[in-house]
Amino acid sequence: MSMPAVRTEHLTKRFGRLRAVDRLDLSVESGEVFGFLGPNGAGKSTTIRLLLGLARATAGSAEIFGIPAADIRAAHEKLAYVPADVALWPRLTGAEILELLARTGPGVDHAYQSDLVEQLDLDLRKRAGTYSTGNRQKVALVAAFATRAPLLILDEPTSGLDPLMERVFRTAVLEARRRGQTVFLSSHQLAEVEAVCDRVAILRSGRLADIATVTDLRRLYRTEVEIGYTGPPPDLSTVSGIDDVEPVGPGRLRLALTGPPAPVLRALAAAEVTTLAVREPSLEEIFLAYYGEANR
Ligand SMILES: Nc1ncnc2c1ncn2[C@@H]1O[C@H](COP(=O)(O)OP(=O)(O)OP(=O)(O)O)[C@@H](O)[C@H]1O
């Protein structure tokens, strides 16, 4: 098996008495798009700072392709990153900054860089001091995506982008995966994570609340099923894994399903079903369920 792109073991960062990151164990496989989710203050940025060697761990370890994150020179040959808050040199133009960043990275695909600049509608002739937050983010994204770095670490990279640019971003993530790059994406945008990530980790108070594929996460949660029928209503009284059965109109029932649908489908086979609609929970609903539980 190849070396994980990111690996942390009992990674811990304390600020005084606060454990911002608390014994975090993560392994991100090479080539996957990994989502890193959590509410404000969960410890996402601190974890990323530890991965980048911008902060020192209180305990535990973090490695980038087997290289200790604290070995900054070696680790940064393997990665490119976009911070949550992009700071650029105000007197340099966008073009000058891209050139500068390309020199420090592990090699750049110039044709792809130009493509991205065009798709993101970025004016490279302007000085960075005149750029908006979104435009600064675009420069950092172009610089990162155009590298051939095996690992891209992106900390809430689309917070300043409009929906059109967000689509360009998603395509770029999928393109990176196609090229075999690994993407570590911290995000609040659940739709984005859902669209591009293979697996997600959910962080809560510095600890790992769950780690799963988006599909598995959904399976743990309830699916909403709406059934239309003619004749007598289906008998669902003995079916396992369902609850909240309620009529929603003449010849219509709605119910919540947990687990596999086979038992309910068998019960429905005996009725005259005319329509069947299944709605999977969005990642957002799953996420709210997590934090709803945590706040109870
Ligand atoms: N330099 C610091 N000194 C003291 N406390 C800090 C420091 N940096 C972060 N923290 C605290 O550590 C915790 C985790 O913060 P962090 O920024 O990692 O969270 P986050 O998940 O990235 O949140 P957000 O989504 O708001 O960016 C918070 O309680 C924060 O106040």
Strand line-up in the sheet with most strands: 6-7-8-3-9-10
Any idea what the radius of gyration is?
A: 23 Å
Order of helices and strands: EEEHEEHEHHHEHEHEEHEEEHEH
CATH superfamily of the largest domain: P-loop containing nucleotide triphosphate hydrolases
Could you say how many structural domains there are in total?
2
Major sheet size, sense and barrel closure: 6 strands, mixed
Return the structural class: alpha/beta
How far apart lie the N and C ends?
42 Å
CATH topology title of the largest domain: Rossmann fold
The appropriate CATH architecture of the largest domain is 3-Layer(aba) Sandwich
- The total beta strand count reads 14
Mean model confidence by pLDDT: 89
Percent helix range: 25-40%
Question: Would you write up a description of this structure?
Answer:
The chain has two domains: 6-217, Rossmann fold; 222-280, Alpha-Beta Plaits, CATH 3.30.70. The chain has a six-stranded mixed beta sheet with strand order 6-7-8-3-9-10, sandwiched between helices. A four-stranded antiparallel beta sheet has the order 2-1-4-5. The protein has a four-stranded antiparallel beta sheet with strand order 12-13-11-14, with helices on one face. Helix 3 (94-104) packs parallel to helix 5 (133-145) and helix 4 (110-119) packs antiparallel against helix 5 (133-145). It contains ten helices and 14 strands. Helices cover 33% and strands 31% of the residues. The protein has helices at residues 44-51, 72-75, 94-104, 110-119, 133-145, 163-178, 190-196, 214-220, 262-269, 283-295, and strands at residues 6-15, 18-28, 33-37, 59-64, 67-68, 79-82, 151-155, 182-186, 199-204, 207-213, 223-230, 242-249, 252-257, 272-279. The two termini are 42 Å apart. The chain has 296 residues and is of the alpha/beta class. The protein is elongated and about 75 Å long. Bound molecules: adenosine-5'-triphosphate. The site of adenosine-5'-triphosphate has 11 residues, from strand 2 and helix 1. It holds the Pfam family ABC_tran. GO terms for molecular function: ATP binding. It comes from Paractinoplanes aksuensis. It is found in: Cell membrane. Belongs to the ABC transporter superfamily.
